[in-house]
Amino acid sequence: MRFRTLLTASALLVGSFASAQNQNWTTTDINGNTHSIQDYLNAGKTVLVDVSAHWCGPCWAWHNSQIMEKLYHEFGPGGTNDLMIFFVDGDAASSMALLQGGSGSQGNWVQGTPYPIIGPNGNGAALRQIYGVTAYPTLFMHCPGASAGVTINRQATWQQFFTSWRNGCPAAFNNGANDATLLEAESGVLCPGEHPKAILYNQGTSTLTSATVQLMQGANTLQTVNWTGSLPRWGSADVDFNTVTVSGSQNYTAEVSLPNGTADAHPEGDTEAYAYSLAPSAQLATVHLELKTDNYCEETTWKLYNGANQVVQQGGPYTQNQQDNTVFNYWWNLNPNECYRLEVLDAYGDGICCSYGNGYYKLRSNGVLITQGGTFGAVAKEPFAAGLTVGIEENSLESGLNIFPNPTNGDVRVELNLLSAANVRFAVMNVLGEQVASTNRSLGAGVQQVDMSLNELPNGSYFVHIIADGMTATRKLTVNR
Length: 481
Fold this sequence. Notes:
The chain has helices at residues 37-42, 57-64, 67-75, 96-99, 123-131, 158-168, 396-399; strands spanning 6-7, 12-13, 26-28, 34-36, 46-52, 83-89, 117-118, 138-142, 150-151, 180-183, 189-190, 197-202, 208-217, 220-231, 236-240, 250-257, 271-278, 286-292, 300-305, 311-315, 327-333, 339-346, 360-365, 368-373, 379-385, 402-404, 411-418, 422-430, 435-443, 446-453, 460-468, 471-479. With 481 residues, the protein is mainly β. The two termini are 35 Å apart.
C-alpha cells in the first residue's frame, strides 16, 4: 500500500481531522466572484471543499485524477445542479503565478478546472484556518441543513467517490421518483463498426424501465430511441444510435425525456454533448507496447481487450521496489482489422506520470506511434484498430518461447532462447490480472528450460509472463486436472 509523507518547508503534516466548526463563510475566488457557502446549502445543494496546497504532490495527483471535474460536470451547476465544488489553496503564499504553475508549484491548477478556485490575497489561508486543516489534501463535505462540514476520504474512481458523497448527503440528490439524466461518454473514440451512444443514468428513486433518448446534430434529429430496460437507482445503461455512422470527427447532442412515460421530476442534466471520432489504426496487425512504470510499480496493471470485450493479454502488477521505473516491452500478433482496447490501470488512481516517477505507455506498429499516455486517474482506455497484415518485430524472447504441456495438470516446463545471460522473471496471472505465482531465475545464454509447479492453482485460464532484458513474452495457459 502506498504511503506518502507530506512536507512543508518546516514540518511534517500528519494527524486526524476534526469536523469543521463553521460553515458559514463568504469568500472571493480568483475571478473576483463572491461565494457564500450558506447560499448553496440553503438552495439544497451539497458542497465539497478541497483544501490543498500548490506545492503538495498528493494534492496534484488527486487534482489530475479529474474525479472532481467529472462530478462537477455531471452533477454540478451545468449538470443536475445538485452539488458545488471549491478548490482552496490553503498556503499563505498562494498567488496567481503559483496557481498557474510558477516556480515552487506542482503545475497549472487553473487550466481545465471548471469550479471556483480560492487562494490569493489570503482567502485560501483564511479558509484553511476556519477548517483547522493540518494535512493536505483534506476534503470537507457539507450537507444541506448540517451545522458543520465533515471530512470525506478520496477514492480511486469517480463512481466510488460519488457513492461515498451521496451516501453522506442523500437529501441533496433526492429529486423525485422519475429522474433520468445523461452522462458524458468515457471515451469519444469509436472503432470501425461502432456507433455513437449516450449513457442513460437513473437518479430517480424508482426503477427506470423506459425513456426516450434523441441524438441531434445541430437542429437535426438523427435518431430517436425508445429505450426499455430495468435500471435501479444510480444504475446506467448505454443507448446505441445504430443508424448513425461516424466519419471523421463529429459533435452531437443527446437529450432524454419521459422517464417511465412521465415528465422528468428534475430535468436538469437531461441534455449532454458528445464528440466522437474514429480510433487510430495500426499499420500492421503486429503491435508493440512499451510500458515504463513509475515509483509505485505494484499499482500498475494493464489489459488488452479484443472486439468481443474479452481480455486477450494482460500484465502487472509489478514487483514493488524491484521493478519501479523500469521499461517493459510486449509484442502481440493480433487479428487483422479487428478493433482492440488497451487499458492501463493505476490502483492508487493517479496514473503513472508525473508526480511520482515519469512512467508512460507507448503503443506502436511497424515503428509508428499509435497512441501514448501516462497522465490519467484510475484507468486510461485506448481503442485502436489492428492492421491488415502481421509484421515482424524483433523480440527474440517471444519467438523462442514454448510452454508445455498446455493444458496442464499442474506441472509445466518453460523453454526459452536467450541471446545473452539474464535475470528472468516468470509471473503467472489469473484472468482478473492478479499475480498468483512467480519465480526469478538467473539463466545463461542459449536454450534454457525452467520447470514450474502450479499444483496449488485451481482449474482455469492463466497468463504466464516472462520478462528478460526489457523484453516480455506472454502465453495463455490452462490448468485442467
